[in-house]
Amino acid sequence: MTAAGLPGWRHLSSGKVRDLYTPEAGSQWEGQDVLLMVATDRISAYDHVLSPGIPGKGIILTQLSLWWFEQLAAEGIGNHLVSTEVPEEVAGRGVVVRALDMVEAEAIVRGYLTGSGLAEYRETGTVTGIELPEGLTDGSALPEPLFTPSTKAEQGDHDENISFEQLQQSIGADLARRLRDAALRVYALAEAKARAAGIILADTKFEFGLDSQRALVLADEVLTPDSSRFWPAEDWAPGKAQPSFDKQFVRNWLTSDASGWDRNSDDAPPELPAHIVAATQERYLDAYRRLTGSELDHLI
């Protein structure tokens, strides 16, 4: 992965999907505690960056995150956004954000049972150690939203679900409680807005950071098809895998006979066929349209 050179910014690091830059000397942002965060069109699944990317995906994620930041700010929830004035080369997909001391944990909230939570429930009747009623199935609504944190792994490693007690040991009891309360509040607000748009927010992953005053700040992307499971409410039917507006569609293809890939092997995943790329892009766009009620002007 080669990050683009951008005027006024020095490449700092790249993750599976995002590139980070720090201000260069002499730029308008010199001396300020900010970063340029760029969402690329790369897509990852099962800890692999897949090829090819999804055209326009970075713009969809960025613009949807900006929409959510605006909705949540109206409810008093702050975020890391500083400016959308970025180099022309990354217009629409880049944002200037506050540099934060990131909390070393993923703040996951689940309102429905699926994915790794379902796998654990089938084995133990619990999700990250939280006991659940008997008789739940794939897609079941949970009695109440659950905060189910995970580790934040380095690129190439696996995030691991952990219990709240393990989170307290890792980051401290006070910060763990603050993280849980903030994540559950954001989920509740977002779940209601999504449901009004005909979308079930089954689960989502948040990232938070601490500012210079040690206040907890919502960061990274938020409530996108990359970080969330979005299901069409009209098709919700527990007991089977749900249709979705997120990258679960790509995961499903990768683990199907059609891909020919063994997830448990050391082999890299195959290239995504053109029809899977196009269908994934349309699912991401559909989520954006349903949630925001608007169209994107461009995806280039």
Keywords:
six-stranded antiparallel β-sheet; single chain; D-amino Acid Aminotransferase, Chain A, domain 1; Phosphorylase Kinase, domain 1; 300 residues; five-stranded antiparallel β-sheet; alpha+beta
Corresponding CATH superfamily of the largest domain? ATP-grasp fold, B domain
Strand content: 15-25%
Radius of gyration: 19 Å
Q: Which structural class fits the helix and strand makeup?
A: alpha+beta
Distance between the termini: 19 Å
CATH fold label of the largest domain: D-amino Acid Aminotransferase, Chain A, domain 1
Shape: globular
| SSE topology string | EEEEEHEEEEHEEEHHEEEHH
Unreliable stretches covering 5 or more consecutive residues:
none
Overall average pLDDT: 94
Count of discrete domains: 2
| Number of alpha- plus pi-helical segments | 6
Count of DSSP strands = 15
CATH architecture grouping of the largest domain = 2-Layer Sandwich
Protein name: Phosphoribosylaminoimidazole-succinocarboxamide synthase
Catalytic activity: 5-amino-1-(5-phospho-D-ribosyl)imidazole-4-carboxylate + L-aspartate + ATP = (2S)-2-[5-amino-1-(5-phospho-beta-D-ribosyl)imidazole-4-carboxamido]succinate + ADP + phosphate + 2 H(+)
GO molecular function, one term: phosphoribosylaminoimidazolesuccinocarboxamide synthase activity
EC number: 6.3.2.6
